[in-house]
Amino acid sequence: MPAKIIKEFLDQNDIKYVSIKHSKAYTAQEIAASAHIDGKKIAKTVVLKVDGKLVFAVLPASYKVDFELLKESLVSDDVRLANEQEFKDKCAGCEVGAMPPMGNLFSLDTYVAASLVEDEEIAFNAGNHTELIRMRYTDFEKVVNPKILRFSNKYRT
């Protein structure tokens, strides 16, 4: 259901996108391999609680949330990961771990990591573990109107 809602939303806003079906995958690396997309181009959505309010944080899949940076950017001491019980009803129809980065569709604020803005295109889960949406980042920004902040760091290998 969420994939259909996302596509209808993008169509209503005259946004060009590509829907990519792939075999079931859960990690960014699995998704990238299954969909034949560079893993650096996949955006992940992390559900957070900021001052008691649910928000989406969107960042490159190869990055992690730096909570200290995010607290500084938001001028808040109360920032943490949300647990499934806190957001499952808000993101109805989405599979856990596959929320699309469009908080506006769920009446949630969306924060995008500045490192993601540099990409010409992004790809993200369409609410499930078997479909991605790929689109131009500028179009994503136009329809989601996220707040761009510095809050992520690359995973160290």
Tell me about this structure.
There is one protein chain. This protein has a single domain, classed as YbaK/aminoacyl-tRNA synthetase-associated domain (YbaK protein, Alpha-Beta Complex), CATH 3.90.960.10. Helices cover 27% and strands 32% of the residues. The protein has helices at 2-12, 28-35, 67-74, 84-87, 114-117, 137-144; strands spanning 17-21, 42-50, 53-60, 63-65, 79-81, 109-113, 121-125, 131-136, 147-149, 152-154.
Oligomer: single chain
CATH topology: YbaK protein
Question: What's the shape?
Answer: globular
Broad structural category: alpha/beta
Uncertain residue segments: none
Number of helices: 6
Distance between the termini: 36 Å
Helical residues, percent: 25-40%
The percentage of residues in β strands lies in 25-35%
CATH superfamily: YbaK/aminoacyl-tRNA synthetase-associated domain
Radius of gyration: 14 Å
**Average pLDDT, all residues:** 90
The CATH first-level class comes to: Alpha Beta
Order of helices and strands: HEHEEEHEHEHEEHEE
Query: What's the domain count?
Result: 1
Give the biggest sheet: 8 strands, mixed
Would you identify the CATH architecture?
A: Alpha-Beta Complex
Strand elements, count: 10
Brief summary of the model shown:
By secondary structure, this protein is of the alpha/beta class. It has helices spanning 2-12, 28-35, 67-74, 84-87, 114-117, 137-144; strands at residues 17-21, 42-50, 53-60, 63-65, 79-81, 109-113, 121-125, 131-136, 147-149, 152-154.
